[in-house]
């Protein structure tokens, strides 16, 4: 998709970062943030909302962390590797927590199933980028 | 793309809103926010950054407003139509301002050309959704 | 409070904007965003969460719009007055919607009472800044 | 200040978290996010913007991470301690990076001096909350 980060990042150089892994991670963060925000809203629309309060909270946590991570990665300049790594670790942790929570409701709610998958993909993309950063 | 808002929104009903127009607008907001954030960062990487300060500011304004709009639309319940309409008007205005600014540098900077296109698409998607809301 | 926008904005000039009204509005946006985020979370903690779903949604809408507005105002350069005005109108509308919704639960929930007050203050601060922009 | 997180959080219980340390951290995140956003904008207004590109990037990174952290903390339910801890570690790392960068320009730019102080306070508040979580 040439309208996403792929198109804009391609117009400038990136020092020592695997560009494909980076773009994939930015895209995964955006998709996960959207899936989590939508899942949170779907959770409070369910009759069983009382049982979904933890799910809704981990959804919103994950959405916020994924959005912030996507923005940090867009500015990736390698200037402070330890901060970038810590942000990626936080994003992977938030995705893991939300993926686990949503997976436990996946049999009952389609939005949780979709969200769990987006969380797994984003967690994996963060781990791959962490590996790529060395 | 079944990992985006399309997949999650499809699992619940939406009162009186054209679902396709809504999903298209949420997607356009996400893509525009990404393009603007990337363009802002590319602007400050240019040797001519001094001439791109206004561009960089309208980029960040547009990114922030698009992100907030995408989130508001994800929760669209029709409960307060006037607030939703005002948010969509603000998003269209921010996209127009950023599209104009980036277009004026489009001949010189690829990131501005890509960003201007994303802004035009998002402005149009907001206008279509405004029409669809009646 | 010299650690807020007051301290940093004071170190540079602002073209044609009433600085006090601007700082007050940025501060009101930050406080309203916090109150709304906390109220949303308190809503889903209530036994009567089913009756508070609309409140929770307007809370999150208002928090997102207030945060984006605060950021836009921090960059206020007067470069595109129409976009800034549209963002302030959207913020006032979101605050009004959330203030009304929270006020209707103010007798029952302390977090709604506090949130309604923050919304009223922020709506007023947006209107004052709009007047000040001429 | 009874309009901030203090007022709303006080209306409900918090399982096993030192409430004062939590409120202080949420407040520090909000103030640091504002200082960073304002510093970033002041950086691009300087004649020497070319030398401040790294500062501007760490400012925006820190602002985004602080905002996300503040939101996550507002929902603190202790449900997933490892994700919360990772987010606090990321926030402390972003504040440290931005504090170091801004401090190196503190003699020349008032906005960097103010921002460095806000970063130090927020880093410390994150560390205190991490200690308090045990």
UniProtKB/TrEMBL annotation, chains A, B, C, D:
A Pfam family matched in the record: Csp
UniProt xrefs under InterPro entries: Csp_YhjQ
PANTHER family given in the database record: CYTOPLASMIC PROTEIN, CYTOPLASMIC PROTEIN-RELATED
The protein's name in its UniProt record: Four-helix bundle copper-binding protein
Species annotation: Nakamurella endophytica
């Amino acid at each position: 998709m040439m309208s996403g980060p792929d198109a804009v990042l391609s117009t400038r150089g990136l020092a020592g970062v695997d560009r494909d892994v980076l773009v994939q991670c930015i895209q995964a963060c955006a998709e996960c943030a959207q899936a989590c925000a939508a899942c949170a809203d779907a959770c409070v629309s369910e009759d069983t909302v009382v049982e979904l309060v933890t799910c809704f909270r981990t959804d919103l946590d994950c959405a916020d962390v994924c959005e912030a991570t996507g923005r940090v990665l867009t500015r990736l300049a390698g200037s402070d590797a330890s901060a970038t790594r810590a942000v990626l670790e936080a994003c992977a942790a938030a995705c893991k927590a939300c993926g686990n929570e949503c997976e436990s409701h996946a049999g009952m709610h389609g939005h949780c199933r979709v969200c769990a998958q987006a969380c797994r993909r984003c967690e994996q993309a963060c781990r791959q980028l962490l590996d790529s950063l060395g």
